[in-house]
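Key result, reporting period 2: structure in, sequence out.
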């Protein structure tokens, strides 16, 4: 049996071929599960927006992070043994004769006597053996010289060469890092 709606004023209008539509629509049934699912979806969205919003306010998330600057790799210069450079060797240690030993090493590697000068540095406690070069073009030769003499540092320093010396001079300051540590004597056993 189909339930009929109660009579109203629209039931008294005579039928017409030009009249279209119904004045009464069937009441759609709202299912409880549909309402529950829509409410659940809305709750999940609101909770997610609340969590993200609080993280942004606390500064734990940044919407527009600043780009991380990229560091360009510094090109490594290959060491070259270039005997055309003049070399000033300064002994920056308390041990006498190290500059002369370094000079002899260079003479055996092809430098001429006129291009190598050995002397003492004003500072006799220089910590790290360093090769100084005056211009960027001399870095490869300075690295090659450092490898021959056991220097641990190579530095560009426009203050070298010293006044009155050739512009193509490399300066080596021998440091206390070259001094051999005394060997420990074994303890005598009773």
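The corresponding designed sequence is given below.
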């Amino acid at each position: 049996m189909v339930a009929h709606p109660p009579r109203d004023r629209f039931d008294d209008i005579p039928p017409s071929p030009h009249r279209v539509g119904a004045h009464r629509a069937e009441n759609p049934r709202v299912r409880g599960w549909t309402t529950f699912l829509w409410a659940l979806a809305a709750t999940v969205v609101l909770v997610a927006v609340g969590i993200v919003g609080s993280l942004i306010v606390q500064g734990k998330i940044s919407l527009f992070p600043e780009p991380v600057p990229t560091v360009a790799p510094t090109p490594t210069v290959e060491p070259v043994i270039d005997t055309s450079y003049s070399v000033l060797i300064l002994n920056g240690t308390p041990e006498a004769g190290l500059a002369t030993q370094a000079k002899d090493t260079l003479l055996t590697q092809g430098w001429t006597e006129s291009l190598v000068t050995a002397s003492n540095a004003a500072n006799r406690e220089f910590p790290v053996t360093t090769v100084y070069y005056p211009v960027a073009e001399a870095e490869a030769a300075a690295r090659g010289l450092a490898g021959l003499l056991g220097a641990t540092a190579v530095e560009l320093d426009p203050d070298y060469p010293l006044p009155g010396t050739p512009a193509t001079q490399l300066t080596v300051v021998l440091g206390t890092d070259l001094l051999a540590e005394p060997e420990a004597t074994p303890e005598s056993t009773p």
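The CA atoms of residues 91 and 120 lie 5 Å apart. The chain has a mean pLDDT of 82. This case is discussed further under Risks and Mitigation.
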